[in-house]
Structures
1.
Amino acid sequence: MVLPIVLVKVVLRSNLKDFGYGLPKTVKSSWGYFLLFLLVLPLVYVASLQDSFINYYPIFKSIIFRKQVAFHHLIIFELFYGLYFLSGESFWRGYMLFGLRKHFGYYSLFIMVIPYVMSHYPKPFLESMGAIVAGLTLGYLALRHNHFWFGVLAHWGVAIAMDLLALYQLGVTII
């Protein structure tokens, strides 16, 4: 997240708000993200039934011991994982999307989503394909609301749900 901010401020000499870094003016626009989160949950559940999902998630398998994970370890991991989504959303839906918007308008969504989906290639196939729809949707909402912050929360929320469903499918107990 630091590199895009430095590029915007120092190299481009632009305002961070022009790249989606401005805080939301109201929480009224958050309902769309929450609805998106709720719509994705059943799909995440279905994905959690796939072997490819269980083989990949949770990515913190190293903190699981004897089919148990400590609650405080899970919370610490998920908080740091949130920083990962903050960084990703600030790059894909912030720096890249808003930077391209000046020249390509809403077509910037399609330019941004190609490398975004490519970043999902090591993940399960269904997730990589879902990244097309998710990337376009989160990008559209970011452009419409002039920020990516609620996208961070939605993306992070889906990731937490994926981890919890993976734990459930693997029979791991949170202690």
2.
Amino acid sequence: MKRVGAKFCDVFAAPAPYRDAVLAVVGDLLEDIAVRTSSAPAVGTDTPATIDRRRGGSGANVAAAAASIGCAVRFIGRVGLDPLGAQLVADLAATGVDVRAQRVGRTGSVIVLVSADGERTMLPDRAAAIELRDVDPTWLDGVTWLHVPAYSLLSEPVGSTSLELIAAVRAAGGSLSVDVSSVAVVEEFGVRKFVSMLDAIVPDVVFANEPESALVPLGRPWITVVKRGADPVVVDIPGGSELLSVVVPPLPGVADTTGAGDSFAAGYIVATMAGGSVLDAVGYGIRQAAALLTARVARPPR
């Protein structure tokens, strides 16, 4: 395995191809209800906690992070026809994202249990998010890159809808990235079925954390980027003679890791769209994840 230092060069002088690029993300826009405790919950009685409500959903997180860098981003999804859905759409739009959201049913939420070491356990109720269907074809106008979390591929009808969007973007010559997203979701769907799906759509990039990466064999015809927390990021490039291992600078005092992987994906995608190399993209992904985690340390939940 070839070990390299993360390259934190700024590739965002906005060359012409970048200015003309549009990223679309199809995914969830949900409410995250983050519950942080200093000890494991005590069964049958009280455990003091700090509770923070915020906009969440892997797709929405990637879109907002990419917009914060200056990328033109469109979010495609479904939320409920309720006050929470309206609030989440307005919040995401305020980050600079072009939000194309169907409004039907009930908006989903995720309980995020955050342990003392910053690790999280998620209890999702995706509600309207999985009901995305019959997307207006004009929502893909100008899109040059589509990002799809596996959450949007492995439930129905959103899964079939996402495959239709992938086919349309591919037919127009666009790029595709997929995030494996969840071991539990992939295992419930079927690991072999999921890998066969990836083989059929052939993404340009697949993102996974370390447990997720065990489900997707290396050596496929796409770049696989394995995020490993504080450990080096591992990258498998098709045709490469060895894996790359990119060092992650230390970041003390991590309070909550929720969304860090989405920020990494956004940084990687935007750097690639701007013409950066794989190492540029990994380095910028690391930087974007670190920025989110640092903000969480500096500004803990209310």
